Amino acid sequence: MARSSSSLLAAAAVLAGAAACGDPAAPEFPEDYARSFVEVRACRPSGDHDLRSVRVLVDPSGLSSYLTRDAPHPEGAVVLKEEYEFGDRACAGPVAEWTVMRRRATAEHGGWRWQRVDADRQVVSEDDSRCIGCHAACGQAPDGHDGTCAVP
Question: N or C: which end of the chain has fewer CB within 10 A?
Answer without folding.
Answer: N
